[in-house]
Amino acid sequence: MFRENIISELKEKINNNPYDIENYKNLANYYVGSNDLSNALLVYKEILEIEPNDFQTLINIGSICFYRKMFLEAIEYYNKSIKVEPDNFAPYYNLGNVYAEVENFELALSNYQKALEINPEKADIYTAIGYLFQDIDNLDEALRYYKKALELDVLNGENYINIANIEQKRGNIEEAIINYQKATELNANDAKAFLCLANSYASNKDFKKAQKYYKKTLELDNQYYSAWVCSAIAYCDDNNSQEAISLLKQAIEINPDKPNAYIILANILVDEKRYEEAILIYKTVKQLLVNDPKICMFIANTYVMLSNYTQAVKYYKKAMKLAPKDNEIKLIYIEMARAYIDNKFKDKGR
C-alpha cells in the first residue's frame, strides 16, 4: 500500500505539471529503487519525449538496457549521450562495459581508454581495463592496471583481491595471502575476501589457518555456498572426509540446484567404497546436468566397482551418445562391452 501511495502521488504531480521532467525522474528513480525496471524504462522514455537530449536519462536508459542484456539498445543510448556531452567520461566507460560483456576486446579497450583520456584519475576505469586484460590471460597488463587503480583508491579492497588473484594464479601464494589480508583489513565484513584468503592457505596446505578463515567467512554469511564447498574440499585434502561430507550436505541444503557439492560428495563416497550411496547422488546430479556425459561416466565407473557390468555398460553407452566424438569414452565403452560379454560367457559356463 505504501508503494502504491508514493507512485500515485508522483503520477498526480506529473498530471498536474506534465512538462516538469523532475517529477518524471522522481517516478522513474522510484521504479528503479523498487527494481521495477520495465516501468522505469517507460517513464525515462517519456522524459525523452519532452527533453530528447537529457544526458542522465539517456545514460539511465542505456544502463537498464545493459542490465537486461539488451546490448544493442544500450549502445544506442550511450552513443546518444556522447552527442549531448562528448567530454563526459561516463558514456565511454559504460560502452566499454557493454563491449567487454559481449567479448569485443578492441572496442571495449578503446572506449575505456577514451574514458581515461577524459578522466585519468578515475580508479574504476583502470580496474575495468585490468579485468579486460585478465580475461585474455594477459596477467602482466592486468596487474599493471590493478596497481594503478590501487594508487588512486587505496581503500578499495577489491583491487587487493584482484592483485592477489593474479599472484595466486602465478603460484605466488605468499604474495596472494598478503594482498587478501589487506582486503580483509580494509573491510572486516567482506566475506569474499576471507574466502579467498582461506583458499590461499588451503592451497598452501596450511589447513588450520584455512579452516579459521572459512569459519570467519561463514560467520559473515552462513548461506555462502562456495564457502561450505571450499571448506569441505580443504577438509578432504586434509584427510578428514567425515567433516567434508557434513559440510557438503550443508551446501546442498543451502542450494540444492547446484551440482558441485553433489559431485564432490559422491566422489568422496566412492573413495570410501560407499558405492550405492554415491550412485544415488550421481543420479541426482544427472537430473541437474542432463546432457553432461561426465556424470554418466561417473555412474558407470561406480557400477564397475560394484561389478554390475550391465548397468555400467548402460551408462557408458549414454555417455557415448552425449559425446559421440569423445574417443576416450569410446575406448572405455568398448573395453567395458568386452568385459560385459566375457562375464556373460563365464556365467553360462558355470
Structural overview:
By secondary structure, the protein is mainly α. It has a domain at 292-350: Serine Threonine Protein Phosphatase 5, Tetratricopeptide repeat. Helix content is 80%, strand content 0%. The protein is built from 20 helices and no strands. The protein has helices spanning 2-16, 21-33, 37-50, 55-67, 71-84, 89-101, 105-118, 123-135, 139-152, 157-169, 173-186, 191-203, 207-220, 225-237, 241-254, 260-271, 275-288, 293-305, 309-322, 327-349. Helix 5 runs antiparallel to helix 6 and helix 16 packs antiparallel against helix 17. The model has no long low-confidence stretch (mean pLDDT 92).
Q: How are the elements arranged and paired?
A:
Elements: H1 2-16, H2 21-33, H3 37-50, H4 55-67, H5 71-84, H6 89-101, H7 105-118, H8 123-135, H9 139-152, H10 157-169, H11 173-186, H12 191-203, H13 207-220, H14 225-237, H15 241-254, H16 260-271, H17 275-288, H18 293-305, H19 309-322, H20 327-349
Helix pairs in contact: 1-2, 2-3, 3-4, 4-5, 4-6, 5-6, 6-7, 7-8, 8-9, 9-10, 10-11, 11-12, 12-13, 12-14, 13-14, 14-15, 15-16, 16-17, 17-18, 18-19, 19-20
Keywords:
0% strand; Serine Threonine Protein Phosphatase 5, Tetratricopeptide repeat; 20 helices; 350 residues; 80% helix
Reading off the top of the CATH hierarchy, the class of the domain at 292-350 is best stated as: Mainly Alpha
Structure class: mainly alpha
Overall pLDDT level:
92
Q: How many individual helices?
A: 20
Instruction: Please give the CATH architecture of the domain at 292-350.
Output: Alpha Horseshoe
- SS elements, strand count: 0
Report helical residue fraction: over 70%
**Elements, N to C (H/E):** HHHHHHHHHHHHHHHHHHHH
Q: From the alpha carbons, calculate the radius of gyration and give it in angstroms.
A: 27 Å
For the terminal residues, how far apart are their CA atoms? 79 Å
Strand content: under 5%
- Shape verdict: globular
The major β-sheet equals: none
The CATH topology name of the domain at 292-350 reads Serine Threonine Protein Phosphatase 5, Tetratricopeptide repeat
Q: Which ranges are low-confidence, i.e. pLDDT below 50, for 5 or more consecutive residues?
A: none
